[in-house]
Write a structure and sequence with these properties.
Length: 388
């Protein structure tokens, strides 16, 4: 056929994370640290809530904005945890995961030619959706600033790009695990409030903050902030696909239109179970977070002693080390060798943008046994590499 398909879609190459994971899937006895997915099962009380919803025949369409009781629980959660005030009727949309929340938000608010400021390295979806919406990504290299955007760099980027419509913040960060302190968030907000821009604040890992508590930028600039969150990471509910958008009602009205055109609504029983997670899930999340912290420390100690250089992540469940100097910046070949020669799967840092080149991402959302054995294998691989 001679007819052209979408020119923006043609430029995409699919998920580099999943593509690499598939490229090493034939390795026998591979220990995978590739996917950002909790190794825990969804807590039983959440599964019981879903089964009860099914037994009560909550199997019909939900409102497009989502099950109202769940939106009410999210509003309570956001106030209890972060001091944010949202009206469940007008300020919150339940989405099919945080990824749909990001897509619906960016398409609803952007026009072709708009620019989006994105820190680098970052989860690739932000750049992909910007492209699909006809926008242009402006990257801020954070590799020399602890993988965080500084107020000075943000101001410089905004001044140099007056067409900017949106700034994407994601913290704790995927792939680096870096996050902002309260003071750092406030300093960024002081810059942003001087410009006519939105902030898409992806806070899906907010409950997995290790030192101190998470501070949402919406606390300081609510009228400019669109907060993304969900159940996947904090409650081990990746397969349930429940996320949400919280923002001022005038923005939510526009995002809801796009959300309706994408999915009509999310899953009713999954949303009902999510409401129970937001209401009663603090203890389950704390248990998982403690396990991640233990695994982080095992890997930090072992891999640092073996010569790898990395920041100490303050949240999420990722390490982002530099690859050994023998590989230069060839993170793809390093990760291939690590998989095929050592039986350990990680993701090349270049999957997360130009500033990730020469690094690799390692998800420690894995069992204690796999973390210990994976660390042993990496150390042995590095010792053999250094002996050559």
């Amino acid at each position: 056929m001679s007819r052209e398909t979408n020119r923006f879609v043609k430029q995409l190459k699919g998920s580099p994370i999943r593509n690499f994971d598939a490229a090493i899937s034939d390795v026998k006895d591979l220990i995978r640290f590739t996917m950002g997915e909790p190794d825990f099962d969804t807590p039983d009380f959440i599964k019981a809530a879903a089964m009860e919803a099914l037994n009560q025949n909550q199997t019909h369409y939900a409102p497009s904005a989502g099950v109202l009781e769940t939106r009410k629980e999210i509003a309570k959660f956001m106030e209890r945890k972060y001091g944010l005030h949202y009206n469940a009727d007008t300020d919150i949309i339940l989405t099919v995961g945080a990824t749909e929340a990001i897509t619906a938000t960016m398409f609803a608010l952007m026009n072709p030619g708009d620019k989006v400021i994105i820190q680098s390295p970052a989860f690739p979806q932000y750049e992909y959706v910007t492209l699909l919406a006809g926008g242009e990504s402006v990257k801020i290299d954070t590799s020399e600033t602890g993988f965080l955007i500084t107020p000075e760099d943000l101001k410089a980027a905004l001044d140099a790009n007056p067409e900017t419509k949106m700034i994407v913040l994601t913290y704790p960060n995927n792939p680096t695990g870096a996050t902002y302190t309260k003071e750092e968030v406030e300093a960024l907000a002081e810059v942003i409030k001087k410009y006519d821009v939105f902030v898409l604040s992806d806070e899906i890992y907010s409950e997995l903050t290790y030192d101190g508590s998470h501070t949402s930028i919406a606390k300081y600039i609510p009228e400019q902030s669109i907060v993304i969150n969900g159940t996947s990471k904090s409650y081990a509910m990746t397969g349930w696909r429940v996320g949400f958008v919280a923002a001022q009602s005038d923005l939510i009205r526009e995002i809801l239109k796009y959300h309706q055109s994408l999915v009509t609504c999310g899953s009713t029983p999954a949303q009902t179970a999510a409401g129970v997670a937001f209401r009663d899930g603090d203890e389950a999340t704390a248990t998982m977070k403690a396990a991640y912290l233990k695994r982080r420390d095992i890997l930090l100690e072992g891999l640092t002693a073996a010569g790898l250089k990395m920041n100490n992540p303050d949240g999420a469940f990722y390490l982002f080390p530099r690859i050994p100097e023998q590989y230069g910046n060839d993170d793809w070949n390093f990760c291939i060798d690590l998989a095929r020669k050592a039986g350990v799967g990680v993701i090349p840092g270049s999957a997360f943008g130009e500033s990730g080149v020469g690094y690799f991402r390692m998800s420690y959302a894995a069992s204690d046994e796999n973390v210990i054995e994976g660390c042993r294998r990496i150390v042995a691989f590095l010792e053999e590499l250094n002996a050559k």
